[in-house]
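Onboarding guide, step 5: your first structure request.
Type a short instruction followed by the sequence, for example:

Predict the 3D structure of this protein.
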Amino acid sequence: MDFESYNLIFSLGRKVLDGGDISCDEALALTELEDCDAPILLGIANKIRYYFTGNQIDTCEIINARSGGCTENCKFCAQSDHYITEAPCYSLLSEDQILEAANKAEADGAFRFCIVTSGLGMNGDSDFEQIIRAIRLVGQKTSLNQCCSLGTLRDEHVEALKDAGITRYHHNLETSQNFFKEICTTHTYGERISTIKKVKAAGLQVCSGGIIGMGESWQERIEMAFLLKELDVDSIPINILNPVKGTALENQDRLKPMDILKTFAVYRLILPDKIIRFAGGREQNLGELMPLGLLSGINGMLIGNYLTTSGRGAAKDIETLAGLGFNPCTPIEKL
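The system replies with structure tokens like these:
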């Protein structure tokens, strides 16, 4: 019997547990494992997750506070004006509506609440001041940690958000720098990196990850992980493409469930002490195997619904976490 693959998994796992870093080539070697070896990789990733962050899991609930009408042509997005989809389109919700959603998130068991708006960013956006007021209101009326996802920012936006009570800012890279041009041509990858650096420089945490299954190679998927490591991103949401009718990726083939799980595990070895978050598309792509995702190195979860699609419901998510022995709360000190 050939134990080469076992030796690879255990040697790299020990390297990470001893405080070392794996290389890009070593990460790519793990992606080449046969499916029969994948459960061992998941187990090692789960051990690394437990060693660095324990059994706590960062739970977050979002609100789509402004939907549709986006000028950008991201091929995956149901809210882009470049595609005809059934996604809702509406202007910014009122402060009271956002507070109502925050109260629900807190009751659902979320420890973080994220206000999300469609669009490229806040430069010249007339809704920004109302968003700031909503953030302050949520901070006054709930005990939630607050995050927001408003697109690209200037320095003055970052400072205003920090002053209002935001502790973490979400801005996905979406994919690797090399593959990004295949996904979006109306803005640059550099703009995304610039916003992340502005947020980090202001002393805020960053939530940034992407979507797997858009046609990228393993090499490109791993390159994104190493860039997230270089940028010292705190929370990494991994979405799995759920092809939306009307978008440019509506006919994209779905990833194999085992490749999804291997992605989570390899990301954990690359980013051992970060929050790796179970995000959108997990229900449609993993089906009954979804709980295995939580045993592959995951220590964060988006609970409840997503931007334009429904999840299983927060209660079911919390039930699954409890059944696996997780403690739904932030794995890092509350800011």
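Each response can be followed by summary notes, for example: Confidence is low (pLDDT under 50) at residues 331-335.
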